[in-house]
Design a protein that fits this description.
alpha/beta, five-stranded mixed sheet, two-stranded parallel ribbon, 12 helices
Length: about 300
């Protein structure tokens, strides 16, 4: 692996920077990846789990007793957008910080992106190259939606001993619908958006297979994930509400994409299929392509 690429994934971005908590993440949290994952996962409640209550995957209260969570608590995705904000709030609610016996009322109500951000922050703090990845997961029970691949965010970290990226899903580790190790996921388990986009474009897969909790289905869902994934690979793990300024995030614009625009997206997807091999070309796009880099959403 190119050391320049690994150094890039040791660097913190705006969202993964832990600020003054870096020494705590480095020294006070276990080094074992499964112990890290368990500790982080037990600090969070997914908004859908809170809404559903003590049923389904939480029938055994593995995520805590939802009746113990204050009635006014809701998704904090738009509030705690950075690692340092999440860590500070964890400490505010329980001064012990990262603990495995955190009370449900003191957990953060956040979704998969935020788990992945915090995992990346911890691993980088420990000197382990790590990155957040966005795409779709086909391994969750989506109930009435049937066999869909739902939007999801995970992590990869570089194993120097094995000289490979290891893919992990901490957020989904306690609620998988398939039998595989979420701390060393097999290839093709996760639907990376570059592969999915090009497969849709080639007519090899039904775009309706892909789902986003907005809710939305179809190719536009994969395009959103492609842009999220591109930004994540560049160490800028943008929040769900942010879309590229080119307007690709809106259905009306998506339906009117020109041949030239589609080819530009195809090029990005082909490069994202092997982001390490194509790192320099991706950086060039990052530094020059305004429609991919500049964002809209909120006051942007």
């Amino acid at each position: 692996m190119n050391e320049k690429v690994l150094k890039h994934y040791l660097d913190f971005g705006t969202f993964t920077y832990p600020g003054l908590y870096q020494d705590i993440l480095k020294n006070d949290i276990p080094d074992d990846i499964r112990e890290i994952g368990d500790l982080v996962r037990k600090s969070f409640i997914h908004r859908t789990t809170l809404a559903a209550g003590n049923v389904g995957t939480n029938a055994d209260l593995r995520f805590g007793d939802m009746t113990k969570v204050p009635w006014w608590r809701q998704s904090e995705d738009d509030v705690l957008v950075t690692a340092v904000a999440m860590i500070a709030e964890l400490c505010r609610r329980d001064k012990r910080g990262f603990v495995s016996d955190r009370e449900p009322k003191d957990k953060l109500v956040l979704t998969c992106r935020f788990v992945a951000i915090l995992i990346a922050s911890i691993l980088k703090s420990k000197g382990i190259p790590a990155r957040v990845r966005s795409g779709n997961a086909p391994y969750f029970d989506m109930g009435d939606l049937g066999n869909v691949s739902t939007d999801h965010w995970i992590n990869q970290y570089w194993s120097r001993s094995e000289r490979r990226w290891i893919t992990i899903d901490v957020d989904g580790s306690l609620s998988l619908n398939e039998d595989f190790d979420p701390y060393d996921m097999p290839d093709k388990t996760f639907d990376f958006p570059a592969d999915a986009w090009l497969a849709i474009r080639a007519g090899d897969v039904d775009p309706e297979h892909f789902y986003n909790a907005k809710p939305e289905r179809g190719a536009i869902v994969v395009l959103w994930s492609l842009f999220y994934d591109f930004h994540s690979v560049m160490n800028s793990e943008i929040i769900y509400a942010h879309k590229p300024a080119g307007g690709y995030g809106e259905q009306e614009k998506f339906n009117a994409l020109t041949k030239e625009e589609l080819e530009k997206i195809d090029t990005l997807a082909r490069l994202m299929q092997k982001p390490d091999d194509n790192f320099d070309e991706l950086v060039k796009i990052w530094e020059t392509e305004k429609e991919f880099r500049l964002l809209v959403g909120g006051l942007l």
